[in-house]
Amino acid sequence: MTRARGGDELVPEYRWVLPSVLLGDGREDRRIRRSLRDWVVDIAMFLIACGITLLGLPEIQNEPEPLIAIEQVMGGLSCVAIWLRRRWPVGLALVTLTLSAYLELVGGASVVALFTVAVHRPFKISGPVTLLALITLVPYLFLRPQSDIGPLEWGLLLMALILTVYAWGIVIRARRQLIWSLRQRADIAAEEAKRLERERIAREMHDVLAHRISMLSLHAGALEFRPDAPAGEIAMAAGAIRTNAHLALQDLREVIGVLRHSRPGEGEPVDDTVPDRPQPTFADLPTLVEECRQAGMDVRLDLRADGVPEGLGRNLYRIVQEALTNARKHAGGAPVTVTVTGTRGKGLSAEVRNPLWSRRPLRLPGAKAGLIGLTERAELAGGTLEHGPTPEGEFVVRAWLPWPLETTLEDA
């Protein structure tokens, strides 16, 4: 993490580097590029300085000629120097404030310079500059006495003017920092949303492709171990391989289409509506179990729940699908029991059991991220997931998902 320019902190959780475009800060080693808004502001500041300078002309009419010439030259130069306020705000303020301790026509530029420092620099810099402005009032009051107002009243008036200008600059700086921090938070939220969407797509593809590929491996293994099988069984296994390969490619093609749709090319319109492929629901569990049975698995399904919302049922479907995929990979041929129970208001539970032994283990490579992904999916849904061997020699995946009394739009 880095600190903002000058050391001021913008957001409690983060410390940012303020962009020069936001605060208009310039550096001595690069040229400042003004936007249209910057040009308007700079012209306004220049006119304000010139206006205050012109108001001070009557005050020097009775001065000696050489002093009047010095006043006019320094007043003109100070007004022209306003165009350098973005590159050297502190230096301009120090010079003009020091000269304003005696010279009358430098006062307009010193006010603008003080305002610029208050906007562009943190308190540890702008505070001492403001203190210098207050200190320069002392010699000014003695060297430039007013005939129509006392020194005390005149000093209080000038002090109020300086503090008002400084407070105005502080308010503008705080507002710019707030806007900048809100933009940063919005950008972070957008990046977080993109990351979550990528994780969601990756999780869905892992669940789908792991299931399809394990089915392919199961049927291919059957052909490998039984090359002398009847022609009908070989044709059935080949058809199952072709079907699952087609479904896997179709799932992959749909997700790639989603990714391409969410990242349009140059010149293409951006559409925020990302088309999702059809998602399975709780009603598709019997179809999933029947598909596993046709592949040779011994799966028993016990459903004791009804009216499960779509979102909740989709999460449960993915958990059961991944659990069956793991059972097929590590305990092929062993009987698997799937038990689903739940009622509205108490939650929905799923338990997948299978013995640890295997007659036909599938030698499939894996990243060992399936159970981790299931745990993350359950936790994101507000539930829990447990998995591991039991003393009875079984491997159990047990999940619980909340099922509220009232169905929300996300669950519907």
TrEMBL record:
Any Pfam family: HisKA_3
EC number: 2.7.13.3
Broad EC category: transferase
GO cellular component term of the entry, any: membrane
Ranges in coiled-coil conformation: none
CDD domains: HATPase_UhpB-NarQ-NarX-like
SUPFAM superfamilies: ATPase domain of HSP90 chaperone/DNA topoisomerase II/histidine kinase
Catalysed reactions, as listed in the record: ATP + protein L-histidine = ADP + protein N-phospho-L-histidine
Top-rank lineage group of the source organism: Bacteria
Domain Signal transduction histidine kinase subgroup 3 dimerisation and phosphoacceptor intervals: 197-262
A molecular function GO annotation: phosphorelay sensor kinase activity
Record key words, sorted: ATP-binding, Kinase, Membrane, Nucleotide-binding, Phosphoprotein, Transferase, Transmembrane, Transmembrane helix, Two-component regulatory system
Record-annotated membrane-spanning stretches: 39-60, 66-84, 91-119, 125-143, 155-174
Leader sequence segment: none
Designated name of the protein: histidine kinase
Species lineage: Bacteria, Bacillati, Actinomycetota, Actinomycetes, Streptosporangiales
